[in-house]
Recover the amino acids of this structure.
């Protein structure tokens, strides 16, 4: 058990899993509170349909509904109609978090683990039901409370009225994620810093670079540039995720930072905002 805490320290909350009998009402409700559509997929192993929904301030939601044939959520939706039934965490290597459990119990419902650190909308490799047994599920559920209680850390997106500027989206090798088409409530975002002629002080440019030791491992890099004289703190995240870095810039400073790494992938989406 002495390796449980170091393992949990590398987990990052990824999304909530919402099981529904039919997705239309869920899509409509999520859209009404500012969520936008992400990628959709069919999981042939669990025989369920999946659709991601993203929000600039609130946790991502994966909507799951049954397809033809039996699926793990059939009894849940028959009993409740809809419910949050799983939590997904991102981690560098999902297998390493189950090393201390020699047996698997595929019948348990538990939070999922994923080693996909590139943000939501990508295909999860966790089958949405981790093979770790129920004891680690209880540990992760306890960790969920700590995760939501520590939103102010640099690893999570900053939320709260006036604490950040509105997010700006970009991408390399892939189109930028669309901005939220629903106008925010007044006071949600602070005004970003501008030059005297109205240009944004902050610009972020993406790039990628293969690592020297293993060229198949790609550093996904952001170059953050401040063209104004005042010091500005910038948060850069994978688009729609809580996988973030914070870059503090002095006046007229440009900094190069690694946002994350990926196996062979030179495409990624990002978003950034100024912190106040």
């Amino acid at each position: 058990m002495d390796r449980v805490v170091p393992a949990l320290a590398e987990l990052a909350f990824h999304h909530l899993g919402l099981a529904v009998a039919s997705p239309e009402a869920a899509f409509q409700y999520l859209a009404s509170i500012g969520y936008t559509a992400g990628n959709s997929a069919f999981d042939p192993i669990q025989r369920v349909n999946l659709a991601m929904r993203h929000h600039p301030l609130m946790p991502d939601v994966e909507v799951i509904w049954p397809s033809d044939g039996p699926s793990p959520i059939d009894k849940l939706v028959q009993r409740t109609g809809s419910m949050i039934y799983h939590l997904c965490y991102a981690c560098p290597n999902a297998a390493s978090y189950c090393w201390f459990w020699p047996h698997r119990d595929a019948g348990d419902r538990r939070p999922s683990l994923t080693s996909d650190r590139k943000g939501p909308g990508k295909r999860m490799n966790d089958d949405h039901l981790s093979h770790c047994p129920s004891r680690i599920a209880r540990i992760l559920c306890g960790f969920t409370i700590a995760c939501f209680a520590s939103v102010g850390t640099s690893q999570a997106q900053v939320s709260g009225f006036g604490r950040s500027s509105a997010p700006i989206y970009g991408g390399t090798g892939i189109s930028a994620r669309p901005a939220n088409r629903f106008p925010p409530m007044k006071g949600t975002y602070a005004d970003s810093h501008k030059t005297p002629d109205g240009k944004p002080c902050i610009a972020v440019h993406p790039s990628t670079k293969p690592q020297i030791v293993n060229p198949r491992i790609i550093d996904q890099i952001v170059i953050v540039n401040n063209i104004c004289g005042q010091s500005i703190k910038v948060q850069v995240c994978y688009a729609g995720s809580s996988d973030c870095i914070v870059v503090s810039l002095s006046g007229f400073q440009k900094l190069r930072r690694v946002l994350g790494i990926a196996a062979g992938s030179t495409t990624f989406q990002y978003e950034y905002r100024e912190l106040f």
Notes: The helical segments are 4-9, 24-32, 74-80, 134-149. Residues 100-156 have pLDDT under 50 and may be disordered.
